[in-house]
Design a protein that fits this description.
The structure holds two protein chains of two kinds. Chain A is mainly α. Chain A has a domain of 40 residues: Arc Repressor Mutant, subunit A. Chain A is built from four helices and no strands. The longest helix of chain A has 9 residues. Chain B contains five helices and twelve strands. In chain B, the strands form four sheets. Chain B has a four-stranded antiparallel beta sheet with strand order 1-2-12-9. A four-stranded antiparallel beta sheet of chain B has the order 3-8-4-6, covered by helices on one side. In chain B, strands 5-7 form a two-stranded antiparallel sheet. The longest helix of chain B has 28 residues. Classes of the chains: A mainly alpha, B alpha+beta.
């Protein structure tokens, strides 16, 4: 799951994840999406850029 | 002492504090980050959790959800008349009960006081598969950033000295400094370098312009003087959504004032005694 807040500054970033993922998968440049979402600090940007969702991989093994 | 607000909205606030000592500016910053109280979930009772996350992980994620806090509605649990038992004056309770498939959102946290609902309802807590279930009861209390960062109402909260950039008369207008400045504070007007008044506040005092000027072989002294005003500060405050940013500033000032009054009362008692 995406961390609720940015590790460094504490801004809530998780609420942007769904939109970021949808638009990135649609082929949009991550730079424009992050600018649109108002994530202008590089600490918050890396939270979304470097995130890999693995909940769907682990869920079947509960 | 003066405060000039340049930008103000619910989420962030930018202002210039002038006529203050550096120690006072720092105490304002510290009061905003660590002394202004807000609500956050601090204890979680888990009735059922068959989700992909451990109970501890769920509790941790719930604790980080910002909850709207109205000043004066709640008292810190230690100062409450219930003596730490938890009552309507000091605690808010939440219930969360979701069955998969689907995402558990922060909006699924149902508070007993609608005023203390999560600031954003779009925070994903955990994703559930078919048959997975989460049933949780949580308790939020009022506390400050001194105890844990989840009670900190600010995210970014800092200040810098107000920059002062001046161009000396022996500037030959070569423009090397204009290209060197990463914040584009300087610009060329004809054959003369000038400070862009609107962008001056963006200056980070990196002195790259200073170095670029010396590198052109202008002489012993650079034609640019970069310094800062010792008693003027540019503050940037960002809220996590629990308390509006201007409100955080207002509360922090009244906290400092109350502290100051307490100190002077204590000192006068000592002097009299």
């Amino acid at each position: 799951m995406i961390p609720v807040r940015c590790f460094t500054c504490g801004k809530v970033v998780s609420s942007f994840w769904e939109e970021f993922k949808r638009r990135r998968d649609a082929g949009e440049d991550p730079k424009t999406i992050l600018d649109d979402l108002g994530l202008f600090r590089y600490c918050c940007r890396r939270m979304l850029l470097s995130h890999k969702e693995i909940i769907d991989v682990t869920n079947p093994y509960q | 002492m003066r405060i000039e607000c340049q930008h103000r909205d619910e989420h962030s606030c930018r202002f210039v504090l002038s006529g203050a000592l550096p120690s006072f500016a720092n105490s304002v910053r510290r009061a905003m980050a660590a002394e202004v109280p807000k609500l956050a979930i601090d204890s979680v009772g888990i009735y059922d959790n068959t989700s992909g996350l451990y109970d501890e992980m769920l509790a941790h994620r719930l604790g980080l959800v910002p909850l709207r806090t109205e000043e004066g509605t709640y008292v810190p649990i230690r100062e409450c008349t219930c003596e730490g038992q938890g009552c309507d004056r000091c605690t808010v309770s939440y219930t969360l009960s979701v069955e998969g498939p689907g995402m558990v959102w922060s909006r699924d946290l149902i508070p007993n006081d609608p005023e203390a609902a999560p600031a954003s309802g779009d925070i994903p807590i955990v994703k559930l598969e078919k048959g997975q279930k989460v049933v949780i009861e949580a308790r939020a209390i009022l506390s400050t950033g001194k105890e844990h960062a989840k009670w900190q109402p600010t995210t970014v909260c800092g200040y810098k000295n107000y920059p002062r950039v001046s161009i000396d008369a022996h500037c030959d207008g070569c423009g090397a400094c204009v290209d060197a400045c990463p914040r584009r504070v300087l610009h060329l007007v004809g054959r003369k370098v000038e400070v862009d008044g609107e962008r001056l506040e963006d200056c980070s005092l990196c002195r790259l312009c200073d170095k670029a000027c010396l590198a052109t072989g202008i002489g012993e002294n650079s034609a640019i003087l970069v310094g800062s005003e010792p008693d003027r500060f540019i503050f940037t405050v960002e809220s996590d959504g629990a308390i509006p940013a201007p409100e955080i500033l207002r509360q922090s000032i009244s906290i400092i004032r109350a502290r100051g009054e307490e100190l002077s009362r204590a000192l006068s008692e000592i002097a009299e005694g």
